[in-house]
Write a structure and sequence with these properties.
7% strand, elongated
């Protein structure tokens, strides 16, 4: 049952060339992002400012260098979820809304790349 659904969804994705190209670009960006993170992040004794609270007094939290490796996993997971959401939207609501979700996926990948680049640049200037 689930296998048939996945097979049908994949066939529908392949028939729509524009959505397939956008999904492929999203996957390529996510893999390139994960490779970039894997190559740039080096073990270090420096601690990294990970986030701060927006409620009341600002608190900075610090974490070790391997926290940055989770960014690559984030990109892969978000890309797959976004492609699945765009495909499900295509099957239920139609082409225009699915294309919007596919473009959102590309935007999320670019945004994640910019944010992580700025964090890595502060943590370890190139």
């Amino acid at each position: 049952m689930l296998k048939d659904t996945i097979t049908h969804s994949f066939k529908e994705l392949i028939t729509n060339r524009y959505l397939t190209v956008l999904a492929s670009v999203t996957i390529i960006l996510a893999i390139a992002f994960a490779i970039y993170i894997g190559l740039v992040v080096r073990p270090s004794e420096l601690q990294l400012v990970t986030h701060y609270t927006a409620y009341g007094v600002t608190h900075l939290y610090r974490d070790q260098w391997f926290y940055l490796l989770s960014f690559g996993g984030f990109a892969i997971v978000i890309a797959l979820i976004n492609i699945g959401l765009a495909l499900k939207t295509f099957l239920t609501k139609g082409h225009p809304l699915a294309i919007m979700f596919a473009w959102f996926g590309i935007g999320i990948m670019i945004f994640a790349w910019l944010i992580s680049f700025s964090i890595i640049n502060v943590w370890s200037p190139l």
